[in-house]
User: What shape does this take?
Amino acid sequence: MRCLAAVALAATWVWTSVGASGDLQPKVKKPHLSGIFVAITTATSHWTTEQWTADLTSMQDVGMTFAVLPHLAKQNTTKQIDTQCPLGYYTTLFNATTLGPCFSQTGTTENGGTVETILKAASSVG
Assistant: This one.
């Protein structure tokens, strides 16, 4: 539910602004998206910086100004909970070596993992 509230708030901000008389005025003449939730799949989690740069450039070309990276860690259900990790084991799309034995990196093996790869690409795109 929190995600839907954030989307509604972002959509409200994108679509309206406060006019001189204090009333809400439309900011845009035509409906459009200004951002996207990026679905990081098994395939895209292994993309290179160049592949992410091409994808983010395409998004920017159609007017998108931000991308949200959801689900950067998830519970690893193939491992049983034990005394070492009483809350379970997790896989992450970023370098998790400092988080302890309950976390392991998945996705690209590029330095910093998938998230760092996407951030490098986003930085190069602007």
Q: What stands out?
A: The beta strands are 16-18, 24-26, 35-37, 66-68, 73-75, 90-92, 103-105.
